[in-house]
Amino acid sequence: MTNVPGRDSRFIPVGIIVLLFLTIQSRHGWAQEPGEQVFNTTCFACHTIGGGRLVGPDLLGVHERRSQAWLENFVRSSQSMINNGDPEAVALFAEFNQMPMPDSVISDEQIGQVLNYIKVQSSSAAANTSAEVLVADDQAEVQEQPTSVEDIQTGQDLFQGYIRLKNGGPPCNACHEVRNDAVIGGGILATELTSVFSRMGGAGVKAILGHAPFPVMQAAYQDQSLTEQEVTALVAFLEYADSEQYNQLPRDYGVGLLLSGFAGASVLFIFFAFVWRGRKKGSVNQTIYDRQIKSASD
Question: What's the CATH architecture for 149-246?
Answer without folding.
Answer: Orthogonal Bundle (1.10)
